[in-house]
Structure of RNA polymerase sigma factor SigV:
Amino acid sequence: MELISFFGHRKKTSVCKAKNGDKEAFLSLMNENRLNMYRVARGILKNEEDIKDAIQNTLIKAFENMYTLKKEAYFKTWLIRILINECNETWRKNKRSISLEENIEGIDEKYHDHYENMDLIKAIHSLSEELRVTITLFYFEDLSVKNISEILKISEGTVKSRLNRARVKLREILGEEE
């Protein structure tokens, strides 16, 4: 996608430059989206190391596959989809293995997550994968139902249904009345 500047010259967007192999443009795009990526990953995964790994894997896959991006306007949607896939893969791997944290008592972690003890975060992490991802994209990323539908490749009605089920479950978990 090219923009025409005030003087009529064509100006390439960062996404276009990144698609053409410009590493600086790609790094700039990743920097612009790093907070969004962290929030999405944090909404899906609990462990800070898993979050970092998922984001790092996302960056590698996005860089290697930039050429597959069909419409530059959908760059953020494309990037978040890659991240969600990486987070889900990490989540599945973690479900299969037994965590050392559960087996070893009395070990202090070097990193203390200030949000770890928040009731809402714990409640969100107790939701099923599909509800957790949907609620994270809607409330933490401020994405519309339509955008979530495109990212998750599900109908808008399914997004609305998942949001409703997630809200009901969160109320139950948090012990709130409607």
User: Anything to note?
Assistant: Confidence is low (pLDDT under 50) at residues 1-11, 98-117. The chain has two domains: 10-99, 116-178.
